[in-house]
User: Fold this.
Amino acid sequence: MLDARDFYRERNGTIYHAMRLLYERSEPVDYLTLIDELERAGELDRAGGTTYVAGLLGVVPTPIHAEHYARIVADAAMMRRLISVGGKIASIGFQNEHDPATAIEKSEQLLFDVAGRRSARDFERLDGVLTEYPGDAGGDD
Assistant:
């Protein structure tokens, strides 16, 4: 649902990326493994250092609502992209470098790029979904 670039603060995205790497390697995601991963990747300073990471431990909400919190981050990222595209579209209009049809086409493409990122988030890989439903794939249904 999330990408490291979805975080407003780059250091939070860096931390999220390291956590995802640990998770994908089936390693525990805790303070020590996270600090080790960030150090190994040479990104501990970029992530705010050990003090910043430790400070997150006191403000992390319960994992029960992780999907809800992830949706908040993803939605905020989408709104930031939309704001950015709005500025680019305004620039296209103010620059007056293109005929109206071309300007509209360029503006539409910018909006479609934002909308496409949202749609791609809603899809899941089929192999991941199928592993949730063990049994006869051929079925007699």
Remarks:
- The chain has a mean pLDDT of 83.
- The chain has six helices and no strands.
